[in-house]
Amino acid sequence: MKFKLAAVLVVTAICLGVVLWDLDLSEAGEALKTATWGLLVPMFGLYLVAHTLRAWRLQLLIGHGVSFVRCFAINTIGFLAINVIPLRLGEMVRPYMFYESEGVPFGRGLAAIVLERLLDMTMLLVMLVGLTLIVELPPGGIQVEGIDVIAAGQRLAGGIVAIGLIFGGGLVLVGEPALALLAKLPMGGKVAPLARKFREGFLELARNPLRAVLLGVLSACIWAVTVAAVGTCMAAFDGIPVGVAEAWSTWTITISGMTAIPTPGFFGAYEIFCSAALWIWGVDSHVARTFAIVLHLGQFGFIVVLGGFFLLREGLGLRSLVRSAPPIDEGAGS
C-alpha cells in the first residue's frame, strides 16, 4: 500500500511539474487580472444543481427508505473523500456511511455505487462519441505525451461499460448458478455477496423501466449542467471561445484524463488534460493552464467547503470512516 501511495504521489508531482513548467507568471497574472470573477457565482450555483441531481440519483439507486436529505449529506462527504484520499479509497466512504447511519447493507450500498459509476461511464462514452461528431478534431487526435486522449478515453469507458453490462447481464440471466460458481473462485467469498446485490440492482431496474429511464435522464442532466458550469467559467476568461462544443470538449477530455490518472485530488492530471482540450480551440497555452487551475480549484473548493460542512455536522473524520469500512463478506454485506 505504501509503495502504491508513493507511486501515486510521484505521478501527481510529475503531472503538476508538467503543468507549471515554463508557465509565464506575468501572462498568467494578466489572465487572472482580466477575468470576470462574477461569473464564478453562477458556476458554483450550477455545481450545486449537479450535486443535487447526483444525490437524487443515488437515492433512487440506494432505495431502502433513505431520505433525500441524508443522501445529499452522505454523497457530499463521499465526494470529499474521493477528492482527498488517494487510490480511490474514498469510494468506500459512502456505502459505509449508508450502512453505519442508515442501516443499508454494505453490499447494497457498494452495488449502488458501482451502478452509479456504470451510469457515469456510459455518459462519458456518449460524450466522447458525440465529441467526434460535433468537433473537428486534428487528424492525430488530441495528443498528450504521445497518447490520443479521445481514442484512449473511448477504449477505457467502452471497456468498463461493456464489462459492467456483460457481468450484470450474465448475473441476471444465469442467476444463482453464476453466483454459486463465483463463490467457489479465489476471493469468491468476498465478491459473491457484492455480485448478489449488484444482480438485485439490475433486476430492480428491469422490473421498473420508468426508474431506469429516470436514472438515465438524471445522468444526462448531471453532465449537461456540469458542462454548462465549465462553459460559464470559460466565459470569464479573455481569449477562450465559449460555446457548447468548446465546453463539451473541454470537460469530456478533462474527465477522461481524470479517470485514466486518478491522482490525489486529481491535481496535475486535471490541468494537463483540461489545457490540452483548449489547444484545439487555439487558446494560448499560458491562458489555458491558468484557466485549468482556476476551474479545478473552483470545483475542488466547492466540494471541500460543502463536504467539510456536512463532515463537521456529522462529527466524523475521513480517516476513521475509511478504516472502519466493513469487509463485503461480513454481516454488512448481507
| N-to-C CA distance | 28 Å
The number of distinct β-strands equals 2
Average predicted local confidence, pLDDT: 81
Radius of gyration: 21 Å
Tell me the helix content: over 70%
Number of helices: 14
Walk me through what this model shows.
This protein is an all-alpha fold and 334 residues long. The chain has one domain (41-77, 93-333). Helices cover 76% and strands 1% of the residues. The protein is built from 14 helices and two strands, in the order H-H-H-H-H-H-E-E-H-H-H-H-H-H-H-H. It has helices at residues 2-20, 25-33, 40-62, 68-84, 93-102, 106-134, 149-174, 176-184, 188-207, 209-235, 244-260, 269-279, 285-314, 318-324, and strands at 143-144, 147-148. Strands 1-2 form a two-stranded antiparallel ribbon. Strand 1 (143-144) and strand 2 form a beta hairpin. The longest helix is centred in the C-terminal third of the chain and has 30 residues, at 285-314. The chain is globular and about 65 Å long. The model is unreliable at 324-334 (pLDDT under 50).
